Amino acid sequence: MTRLLLCTDLDRTLIANGAQPESLGALALFRQLVGRKDVTLAYVSGRHRALIEQAVGQFNLPAPDFVIADVGSTLYHVAPAAWLQDEVWCAHIASDWQGLLHADLCRLLADVPALQLQPAQQQNRHKLSYFAALAENAPSLMRAVQARLQQAHIRANLIWSVDEPAGVGLLDVLPASANKLHAIRYLMAQQGFQNDHTLFAGDSGNDLDVLLSGLPAVLVANADAQVKSRVTNANSAAAGHLYLAQGGYLGMNGNYSAGILEGVAHHHPALDAWLRAQQLKLSGED
Ligand SMILES: [Mg+2]
Questions:
Q1: How many whole angstroms from 204 Cα to the centroid of ligand 1?
Q2: Is the pTM of this model over 0.70?
């Protein structure tokens, strides 16, 4: 074991904000792990920067080294005093939009009646976020948006999701290469991490690309049943790249950070031994 780039989704993966319980002590042990000099921590989230900073404070998460935010459309290098946006990544995804920016695409889509822009904090240079009524036919709406963008030679990645509590559809328009997987691969290349020295943890549909990419990965035990059944028979699981946390590791339940630790132990036996010793130490301090 030399170096590990640990990439984790936040909501319901590292952050225990789902319905299932969190194991006592799991996050403390996770914090110990990422405190090691040879572990580099990257948060990979659909949240924008301010919401990630808020979560770090609210849930007492360890400070990351890198943050891939806005579903891969921004990448930050986190220094103690500042978050520095990676302009090379920014330029890389900008080419998908022919150098056009947020305001230009807004104009192109201004007369699509079903779309209503979300508040300003949800927007950035390379991300347009809209509300759409749930009554809209999502596939035909997305076809219409895609057709409009293609006329302007814009390669876009459209992401449709539903805010269930609010009862509204959400449409994100991103550069085609702005997604979690591409951003992780870019970061790996930039920082010199091979597949064997990278691990991704996730829980839900927008993590599937990475979970099924062949990169070493773990699906936390609290993932929803649909995602579990989707990945169980996938090639990545069969080939041993993707591990499904079961619970039982170090007496923990496999949910959230306990699931990430279980995945780390599964893929890296040397870290497994270290985590076991570390847990004994932590429990001795109680
Ligand atoms: Mg999640």
A1: 5
A2: yes
